[in-house]
Every structure is written in structure tokens, then in C-alpha cells.
Amino acid sequence: MSEQKNENEFPDPVYETDEPILYSVKDGIATISLNRPRYNNAQNNQMTYALDAAYFRAVEDDDVKVIILRGEGKHFSAGHDIGTPGRDHHLSQDRKHMLYDHANKPGAEFQYIKEQEAYLGMCRRWREIPKPTIAMVHGACFAGGLMLAWVCDMIIASDDAFFSDPVVRMGIPGVEYFAHPFELSPRIAKEFLFLGERMSAERAYEVGMVNRVFTREKLEEETYSIAERIAKMPRLGLSLTKQAINHVEDLQGKRTGMEAVFAMHHFAHAHNSLVSTDKLGGFDAKAMADSQRDKS
Ligand code: ZN
């Protein structure tokens, strides 16, 4: 029997760059930069797999002790690409997990497989990088952008940074990597999701989601200073410390909780498709951006 035709008809992507990720190493610190500034670093597959390759390169290089993730342009990350010309989530991917191709699959299977691979799977993979990772966040860290920051071991932000997960508006209980009750206390996590508004860097610091906050002018200097100090520690000690804390988080339910909520997340995608033929509940990139204006 031939495969049922996919309901998802999207135009071929038009990439604005061949380098959605920049990579450099200096003094034991690898810098990985999200490089789609024209689209506020919206994460398409092209970027996802380039980011994975950059992380792997940093892991393989014995001279790299610490990894810094940052963004080019005005913002750290606008989240998953749901509306740029380079949107390519419907294409087959060179998968990194033991999953079959999502691209030709019908109904809810398409999104379920795609997000296991590119969102939940990749984020878990990056969380397990055996070297310390630091997200250096300025401007927006929005929806899927939170996932990129949260999988890092530390988050250092500028005072103009802000954080938001607005997807409850789509009827979805948070982004795919459901670390909310670990990044925030359960009560603050509910507030964060129920309101779907911007959380300032200052507030994120107060509630423990961010390690340090510096002025925009000082952000780079201070972040690299912290990275340099970490880089002086022994590799194995850093790796074991990271494993130890991640392991304890998983014993506290981080991993199993995420599995359960991922199923709810996909129930919501499927429900949206049933009632509106749109997995995102009718929200496109502009509608989501508009929802964030005039709020603090
Ligand atoms: Zn999703």
C-alpha cells in the first residue's frame, strides 16, 4: 500500500545563509553562534543540524573545555521557525536518533516523529554534552529559544534579555522540552505559562532561572571571564559534576516528567489539527510576536 499523502503542504525553503551557525575556538572556549539575525535566529532544521554538528565538533576537540552558545543580531532566539522563507521542518532530515523519516507521514505522526527527533531528542542530546555549556542570552529568548538556553548548564543574561513561553495560546502546555517545573518553581512555572508574558532577566535571576545578569555592554566580557575560570578546572571533574547534577535531576523526575508532558503536547497538536486543521491553533509567527507586545 502506498503511503498516504502528507497533509502538510509547504513551499520549498529559501535559505538566506549557508552558515546558520558560526563556530570558533579561543583559549579553550568554543563559541557557537546562532546566525540567522535577519529572522532573530529562528530555528529551522538547517540551523538545528548545524548546531548539533558544532556541538559535536566542540566535544571532539580536546582543546575545548567550555562551550558558549550565543546569538547574532538583536536577539538570542525567536524560537522554532514557524514562518520564515527558510522554514524546512517538512523536509526529510539526516536524523541523529533511531527514528524513521517523518516527512512523508500522515496526520499526527508527522509532527510526533519530527519533534521527537529535532526538538525533544536534540535538546536531550545537547543537555548531555560532556563539557560545560553556557548560554549567553541577550534580547528575546522566546518559546523554542528557551529550550536552547535551558539545555545549557548556565545561563548568563544581559539586563535587557527577556524570556517567554507563549504556547498556551496555541492550547499547548509549554514547549517540547518541558523543563519548566525544574527551571522555575512549580508555582512560578504556572504563572509563566498561564500568562505567557515576558519574564525580565532580573525576575529570571530572582527566581533562579538565570545565573548572572550583566549590562549589555559587560555581558560578553563577564561571560567569557566566567568561562575562562571554568576552563581552568580538570575536564573529567567538570564532566562528572555535570553528569552528577543531571542524574539527580532525572531521579527527581525531569526525564520521566518530560516524557509524560510530551504526550500531552502532542495530544494538543492533534486536537488543534482536528478542530482547526492547524497544529499551532491558528497562531503564526506574527500573531505570536504580537501577543508579546505591551507586556512586561
Ligand atoms: Zn510541538
Could you characterize the architecture of this molecule?
By secondary structure, the chain is of the alpha/beta class. The chain has one domain: 2-enoyl-CoA Hydratase, Chain A, domain 1 (Alpha-Beta Complex), CATH 3.90.226. It is 43% helix and 13% strand. The chain has ten helices and nine strands. It has helices at residues 45-60, 107-127, 144-150, 180-183, 186-195, 201-206, 216-231, 235-251, 254-276, 285-290; strands at 21-26, 29-34, 66-71, 133-137, 140-142, 154-158, 162-164, 199-200, 212-214. The strands form two sheets. It has a six-stranded mixed beta sheet with strand order 1-2-3-4-6-9, sandwiched between helices. A three-stranded mixed beta sheet has the order 5-7-8. α1 links the parallel β2 and β3. α2 (107-127) packs antiparallel against α9 (254-276). Residues 1-7 have low confidence and may be disordered. It binds zinc ion.
Note the topology.
Layout: E1 21-26, E2 29-34, H1 45-60, E3 66-71, H2 107-127, E4 133-137, E5 140-142, H3 144-150, E6 154-158, E7 162-164, H4 180-183, H5 186-195, E8 199-200, H6 201-206, E9 212-214, H7 216-231, H8 235-251, H9 254-276, H10 285-290
Parallel strand pairs: 2-3, 3-4, 4-6, 5-7, 6-9
Antiparallel strand pairs: 1-2, 7-8
Helix pairs in contact: 2-9
Residues 115, 176, 265, 269 line the site of zinc ion (ZN).
How would you concisely characterize the structure shown here?
By secondary structure, this protein is an alpha/beta fold.
